[in-house]
Write the structure tokens for this entry.
Amino acid sequence: MKKSKPGLYAPLGVGAFMLIPMSNNNLVSIADYSKEEILAILDSAADFETNPNRKTLDGKVIATLFFEPSTRTRLSFETAVIRLGGSIIGFSDAATSSSSKGETLNDTIHMVSCYADAIVMRHPLEGAARYASEVSPVPIINAGDGANQHPSQTLLDLYSILKTQGTLENLTISLVGDLKYGRTVHSLIMAMSHFHPTFKFIAPDELKMPDEYKVFCKKNNIPFTEVFELADNFNDSDILYMTRVQKERFQDLMEYERVKNVYTLKNSMLENTKPNLRVLHPLPRVTEIDPDVDSNEKAYYFKQAQNGLYVRQAIVSKVLAP
Ligand code: CP
């Protein structure tokens, strides 16, 4: 397991409870779902969008364990559960949990699984969600593990792409910004591999797409190009996927200072783009999208975040299905 950032987090720990039967109904990586399962989630999300208020999780308790900050992911998962009649326990700050006293992740997961039917977890360590799934008797949903994966974000990205383009097939997608540490772009490449995409990776050298994802594209016959300049390089794209430079992942803050403002999308830069182009961003944004883009009909990032509610209702329902 790679460590993304030094911090106060206790070691994962070796399971004293390893004989407890583990759940196999986890969502840790987008690769855990087949193409058919992904499409079923998108269908289910569309159904929840037409009627988000149902009581299908009556009596269920879901724990949200956020060892890293979040607005959209935590609140949309919690809203999803509440709208389905379930209840929420958990924490939004590791400092308020006993991990700050040195409790291992293994012990935390086993304790919480005594109280909850499923666990949604965000953690700064890459591989922490997989580890949790290997020691947990209840399903684990990965809400982001370091720079590795963010599968529920990817499913809502796919839902947003499908809604705006009418298809997931044969699209040209420009991924912009922090392609090194941005876990959402890593998960998105893997998910889109089912649908014959063409990628353009737009990033400075310091933040370029890691080799493992380029190897993945080559192995799956996915064409991609790499460029540095943003302006005019996405005019042929169907989706412009902007990302924030992930300050929290940098070991060297001087390096962050050098690249933090490398790209700012402005409204005027959308003039020569395809009519169907939509601008996506997992949010939060900092300086990479100028507020003057917000009123452009091609700006879709706030609606994308709203879509997260319906997609997460679909995910929680699948994970807790009998
Ligand atoms: N997109 C996303 O993960 O946002 P939050 O960090 O606010 O959850």
